[in-house]
Design brief:
59 residues; rod-shaped
Amino acid sequence: MSEIVNLRTVKKQAARKAARAAADVNAAKHGRTRAERDLEKTRAEKAARDLDAHKRETE
């Protein structure tokens, strides 16, 4: 005989699982330390300065 399943409970469990997966993705994307954010910002600024230094001046 089959096991009786409460569909409402199954839907809630699936929603919790999906929310947990989305939270893990966001934590991986945005969960960085201040040092990591500062380092990335500094590297981006240096890359922009280096790019600007190589541009030709047109008049």
